[in-house]
Design a protein that fits this description.
The complex is a heterodimer of chains A (about 130) and B (about 220).
Chain A: H1 3-20, H2 26-35, H3 37-40, H4 59-62, H5 67-73, E1 74-75, E2 79-81, E3 84-86, E4 90-91, H6 98-108, H7 121-130
Antiparallel strand pairs in A: 1-4, 2-3
Chain B: H1 2-30, E1 44-46, E2 49-51, E3 59-61, E4 67-69, E5 77-83, H2 91-104, E6 111-117, H3 125-135, E7 142-145, H4 149-158, E8 163-165, E9 173-175, E10 178-182, E11 188-193, H5 197-218
The chains are: A mainly alpha (about 130), B alpha+beta (about 220).
């Protein structure tokens, strides 16, 4: 008689735990590993002095409206990340679709302790309109 | 009462001593003694003498516009790699691995580092200088060299690396990411995949073995 609530409780707990442990930006992670990881590294640390970090990088929030364009077209101008200047140009990845770019942005904004909020595909497309 | 206390103490002493002994035995079993690294590469037999693969004569220019040649590494071991600054593929990882090795053996005077830039057009001396300064390293430990393009591409082969110009490759070059350990007799003693941190871990143990060998040689 008392078994049913117990079993229900058990399964609910079990499935909620399983679901909560899943990383939500799995596609962004795959894209990151294909197109970004060589320079920005698995742990988002970049390369001392030459390639800026993404982990805990203030640039991601202070320049949130530039990220999509940088990913697609690269960047040659100097930029300052966490108070340090970086001058090595970054190559763009023109073959990425709008959705893929959005997924990458959401991945890096929620990985390595980053918690920079969600970027919608519409926001990404509006950004890309400007730098087309 | 007193007696029981004494025996338990005794027993626990014996127990702890035997435990310590056991740990000691197990620990020493895990310790590797000094290991002699093999001499790698093709060997030739000439008049009963073995001729080993050696790094040939070279002369390049480093980030401080100083000439770097075989004499720069006289009596020392060094790590060599091939890279270029604007490389979008494996190079940042190579530099990161080289930097790990640099930091670990920073104070060891018997070990230097040598990075060859294969993009001789873009990676000018000032750019190499900036790259090195950004990494926080100097030419008394780590040389970033440029030179005649063909000479840099050719010597890659002597370091078991491949470096080719290829307009289809990302960044314009095809090249492999090995880090090479060269001893003071210009012979290659170990190498690793510079893009794989675990491979670099093992490589650093090999470097340590060679440095110990060099110390013993002197004594």
């Amino acid at each position: 008689m008392y078994k049913l609530p117990f079993i229900t409780f058990f399964f609910l707990t079990f499935f909620s735990l399983v679901n909560c442990n899943q990383k939500p930006y799995a596609h962004g992670k795959i894209m990151y590993e294909n197109f970004c990881v060589n320079c920005h590294m698995e742990d988002g640390s970049g390369l001392v002095g030459n390639i800026p970090p993404l982990a805990k990088a203030d640039y991601l929030t202070t320049n949130a409206d530039k990220l999509a364009c940088i990913i697609r077209y690269g960047i040659t101008e100097n930029l300052v990340v966490n108070g340090k200047e970086y001058t090595t140009p970054m190559a763009g990845v023109p073959q990425l679709t709008d959705v893929e770019i959005a997924n990458i942005i959401n991945y890096i904004n929620h990985e390595w302790g980053n918690d920079n909020g969600y970027t919608t595909i519409k926001q990404v497309q509006a950004q890309l309109e400007k730098c087309r | 009462m007193e007696f029981t206390k004494f025996t338990t103490m005794k027993l626990s002493n014996i127990q702890s001593i035997s435990l310590l002994l056991l740990i000691g035995v197990l620990w020493s079993a895990c310790q590797e003694g000094p290991k002699t690294l093999p001499i790698l590469g093709n060997k030739d037999e000439v008049n009963g003498k073995t001729i080993y693969h050696e790094i040939p004569d070279f002369s390049f220019v480093n980030q401080d516009s100083m000439e770097v040649n075989n004499q720069t590494f006289a009596g020392k071991a060094y790590i060599s790699d091939h890279f270029f600054i604007s490389c979008p593929t494996i190079c940042p990882k190579l530099s990161k691995s080289m930097l790990r090795i640099h930091d670990k053996f920073k104070t060891d005077k018997n070990l230097l580092l040598l990075s060859h830039s294969i993009d001789t057009k873009y990676d000018t001396i000032p750019r190499l200088k900036k790259y090195a300064t950004n990494l926080g390293v100097t030419s008394d430990k780590w040389h970033f060299v440029t030179g005649e393009k063909q000479a840099i591409l050719d010597i890659a082969e002597d370091y078991f690396n491949v470096a080719l110009e290829d307009s289809d490759a990302p960044g314009g070059y095809n090249h492999s990411g090995r880090l090479i350990l060269v001893d003071k007799n210009r012979r290659i003693r170990a190498f690793c995949d510079g893009t794989d941190p675990k491979s670099v871990d093992k490589f650093m143990v090999d470097i340590q073995h060679l440095l110990v060998e060099m110390e013993t040689d002197k004594g």
